[in-house]
């Protein structure tokens, strides 16, 4: 499939990706954002707090909705059952917190599957939740605005990368004409669309949605037995898909270039670089890494081999089967655009959904959103 661009069997896995514990909701309007992706179902419930938001509750389950999709073109009955089960938990949380303002979306797996309408009917009957399937451009926009607080005032050329389960979104933004203190705010304003930039605003040079994420890229080469050979093939195949992305020809950039990477792959690589045996978001989100540091972590993964990665506490049992396909995507990007400043973002589509809703309602302000130095 070509990249998109401008112009019993149903039992749940035992472990969650992140805690689902509930705290008492503070006073004030609550918002919810749910991302039903190719691999996981994830939800945040939050309330506005100045120019940011405070998370009240969260949920995440690896439902593997896209399992087998690469070969059959359909969502399996088991995958749909797991997904509906997870969404029933989400519905209970939404009712418990009496959330009235929400945006609940599905992405690549539901865009691609021939029987996604069947899943939507099941969800409607079994949960009553208003899930909508969004397009690739909107998914890219939401990923970009979620990263606005991490944009440096020194950045003139920005690449935002969101490595998902079924697709990878890349957005290249030109900030050269934007005042340094306004660059984070300018990114937030891209929520309305990538077309027709105003003078002095952020300008999207190009964007692309590659239909390869950590799950779909892994499935493409599942029959290759050699670990290092499989990794090389995944990297090569992903780079082929970048040929229509106009910044592919740019190559290495200068000191005013920044990449922001948002995905479980990027945060796992960052946690491994820090040697964290227990994940700590406060140490990972906003961390800056160099191409050399990322390469060193990926080489260490390859040296471990499949069994070593499975038991490595830095990777975790939930991610070990997907980490090398994600690492192949990440290493490809760093080879094409080497940098000393990749900013790690422990945020993504859900955060973008929350920001977009709150900004639309005037529930948060961007007065203090000036980015990092």
Strand order of the largest sheet: 1-9-8-7-10-12-11
Helix content: 25-40%
The first-to-last residue Cα distance is: 40 Å
β-strand number: 12
The number of helical runs is: 13
Summarize the structure in words.
The protein is an alpha/beta fold and 373 residues long. Helix content is 38%, strand content 19%. The strands form two sheets. Strands 1-9-8-7-10-12-11 form a seven-stranded mixed β-sheet, with helices on both faces. Strands 4-3-2-5-6 form a five-stranded mixed β-sheet. It is globular and about 50 Å long. Mean pLDDT is 88; it is low at 7-26.
Task: Provide the fold topology.
Elements lengths: L3 E2 L25 E6 L4 E9 L2 E10 L7 H4 L4 H20 L4 E6 L1 H5 L3 H11 L4 E3 L2 H11 L10 E7 L4 E7 L8 H6 L14 E8 L3 H7 L6 H14 L16 E6 L1 H11 L6 H4 L3 E2 L1 H21 L11 H14 L5 E4 L3 H13 L12
Parallel strand pairs: 2-5, 5-6, 7-10, 10-12
Antiparallel strand pairs: 1-9, 2-3, 3-4, 7-8, 8-9, 11-12
Helix pairs in contact: 2-4, 5-13, 7-12, 8-12, 9-11, 9-12, 11-12
Short description:
This protein is 38% helix and 19% strand. By secondary structure, the chain is of the alpha/beta class.
Q: What are the main properties of this structure?
A:
13 helices; globular; alpha/beta; 373 residues; 7-stranded mixed sheet; 5-stranded mixed sheet; single chain
């Amino acid at each position: 499939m070509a990249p998109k661009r401008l112009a019993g069997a149903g039992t749940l896995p035992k472990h969650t990706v992140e805690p689902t514990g509930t705290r008492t909701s503070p006073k004030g309007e609550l918002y919810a954002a749910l991302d039903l992706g190719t691999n996981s179902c994830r939800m945040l419930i939050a309330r506005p707090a100045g120019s940011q938001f405070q998370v009240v509750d969260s949920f995440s389950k690896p439902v593997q909705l896209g399992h087998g999709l690469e070969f059959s073109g359909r969502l399996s009955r088991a995958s749909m059952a797991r997904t509906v089960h997870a969404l029933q938990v989400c519905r209970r949380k939404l009712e418990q917190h009496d959330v009235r303002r929400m945006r609940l979306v599905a992405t690549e797996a539901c865009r691609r599957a021939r029987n996604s309408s069947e899943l939507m009917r099941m969800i409607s009957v079994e949960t009553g939740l208003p899930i909508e399937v969004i397009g690739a451009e909107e998914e890219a926009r939401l990923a970009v605005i979620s990263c606005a607080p991490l944009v440096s005032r020194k950045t003139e050329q920005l690449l935002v990368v969101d490595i998902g389960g079924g697709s990878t979104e890349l957005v290249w933004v030109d900030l050269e004409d934007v005042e340094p203190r306004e660059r984070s705010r300018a990114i937030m304003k891209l929520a309305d669309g990538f077309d027709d930039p105003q003078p002095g605003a952020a300008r999207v040079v190009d964007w692309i949605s590659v239909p390869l994420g950590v799950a779909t890229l892994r499935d493409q080469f599942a029959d290759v037995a050699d670990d290092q050979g499989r990794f090389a093939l995944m990297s090569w195949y992903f780079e082929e898909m970048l040929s229509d992305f106009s910044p592919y020809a740019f190559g290495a950039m200068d000191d005013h270039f920044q990449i922001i990477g948002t995905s479980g792959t990027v945060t796992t690589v960052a946690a491994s670089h820090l040697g964290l045996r227990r994940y700590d978001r406060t140490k990972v989100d906003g961390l800056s890494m160099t191409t050399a540091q990322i390469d060193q972590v990926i080489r260490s993964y390859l040296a471990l081999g499949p069994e070593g990665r499975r038991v490595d506490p830095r990777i975790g049992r939930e991610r070990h089967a997907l980490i090398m396909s994600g690492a192949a995507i990440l290493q490809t990007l760093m080879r094409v655009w080497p940098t000393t400043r990749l900013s790690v973002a422990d945020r993504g589509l859900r955060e973008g959904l929350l920001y977009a809703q709150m900004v639309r309602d005037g529930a948060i302000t961007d007065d203090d959103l000036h980015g990092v130095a």
